[in-house]
Amino acid sequence: MSGLTEAQVASFHENGYLVLPEYLSSTEVTSLLTETNTLLNDFDLDTHPLTQFTTGDDDTTDHVGDDYFLNSGDKIRFFFEPDAFSQEPDPLTGRAALLKPKNLAVNKIGHSLHSLSEPFKAVSLNERNAAVARSLGFEDPRVLQSMLICKQPSIGGAVPSHQDSEFLYTDPPSAVGWWYALQDAGHGNGTLGMIKGSHKGAKGGHIKRRFVRKSGGVPGTEFIQNEGPSLPKGMEEEKVSDPAEEDLEILNVKAGSLVLIHGNVLHKSEKNTSDRSRYAYTFHVIEGADGWKYDERNWLQPPKEGFSKLFQ
C-alpha cells in the first residue's frame, strides 16, 4: 500500500482535514451497515442504563460520565439521543420513556468496534490504514475510540465546534480522526463542518482545554484547562489571520468516503433535521512511540493490553 500522495499530505497539513472519496468499497459499506443494524436491533433494552450522550457543551446539561460510559473503551455499548426520550417517565417502569424504537433512538455505538466486531475490525486494522498513518508521520500508531455515529432522522443532535485532541490528549498532541461516511452526508442531515486551517496555532488551533475524568474519585467528567503542550511536535506558530466564517466548509461526502481529521482542527456538525439518517464510522489514531504520553486523566483509558496497534 502506497498511502497518501505528497499533494494529499500537503493538503491535510494546510487545511486540517482531507476527503478521500470511494475509500471503502460498496461491499465494505454494506457489511458495516448490516453489522450496525444487527447491533441496533439486538441489544437488550431492559438491562440498559439508558445513558444519554452529551458533552454538556451547551452549559445546560451535565457531561456524560457514568460507569457505563467511562468503562466502554474495550466494549461495545449504546448511547441514546437526549431528544429520543419523553419528559415524563414510563408510568409502569419508572424509567425514562423512549419516544422511538430503540434502533432509531441511539446516538452512537462505541467504543471498541475496531477490536470486537469483525466487520469493523476489517476496515480499521489493515495495511491500507497503516500506509495512510505512515504518510502522516506516525511511528507507532494506536487505534482507540471507535464508534458508529447514527445522527438519527429529526433528532440527531448537533455537535458543537471542538478539537479531537481535547478528548484524547497526548503529550504532545497527536490525534488524527478517521471518519467514514456509511451514508451520504450533506446539507440537512448533519454532515461535518470543518473550519479550514483552524488547526494552526495562530488560528486558535492550540489545545486549550481537555475533557477528563473528575479528580478525587468523584464520578463523572469535566473540561479542564490544558497545562501541557498545545500543538503537535514540530508544528510551529504561523502568522495567519484568525478563522473567519468563510473558513467554514460544510462537507458533502458520499457513502464510502473517508475524511481524515487533524486533532487540532475545529469541526462541528448541525442537528439532523431531515428524514435521512447519517451513519458514520469513526476511530482515532494516536502516537504510541516514545516521546508521546497518553494522559492518565483522559476520559477513555487503555485496556490492560494497551490500545490496538495499527502496525502489526
| Topology-level CATH name | Jelly Rolls
The second-level CATH architecture is Sandwich
CATH class: Mainly Beta
How many angstroms does the end-to-end distance come to? 14 Å
**Average pLDDT level:** 92
Largest sheet, in brief, is: 8 strands, antiparallel
Cofactor: Fe cation
Protein name: Phytanoyl-CoA dioxygenase
Keywords: Iron, Metal-binding
GO molecular function, one term: metal ion binding
Supply the key terms:
312 residues; alpha+beta; Jelly Rolls; eight-stranded antiparallel beta sheet; 26% strand; globular; metal ion binding; metal-binding
Present the secondary structure layout:
Layout lengths: L5 H10 L1 E4 L5 H17 L24 H4 L5 E5 L4 E5 L6 E3 L7 E6 L1 H4 L1 H7 L2 H9 L5 E9 L9 E4 L7 E2 L4 E6 L10 E4 L13 E5 L7 E5 L22 E3 L7 E5 L4 E3 L10 E8 L5 E2 L13 E2 L3
Antiparallel strand pairs: 1-14, 2-5, 3-4, 5-6, 6-16, 6-18, 7-15, 8-17, 9-14, 9-16, 10-13, 10-15, 11-12
InterPro entries: Phytyl_CoA_dOase-like
Organism: Penicillium malachiteum
Keywords: Iron, Metal-binding
Folded structure, characterized:
The protein has a single domain (6-303), classed as Sandwich (Jelly Rolls). The chain contains 6 helices and 18 strands. It has helices at residues 6-15, 26-42, 67-70, 113-116, 118-124, 127-135; strands spanning 17-20, 76-80, 85-89, 96-98, 106-111, 141-149, 159-162, 170-171, 176-181, 192-195, 209-213, 221-225, 248-250, 258-262, 267-269, 280-287, 293-294, 308-309. Strands 1, 2, 5, 6, 9, 14, 16 and 18 form an 8-stranded antiparallel β-sheet that branches. Strands 7-15-10-13 form a 4-stranded antiparallel β-sheet, with no helix packed on it. A two-stranded antiparallel sheet has the order 3-4. The radius of gyration is 19 Å and the shape is globular. The relative contact order is 0.22. Pfam families: PhyH. Belongs to the PhyH family. This is Phytanoyl-CoA dioxygenase.
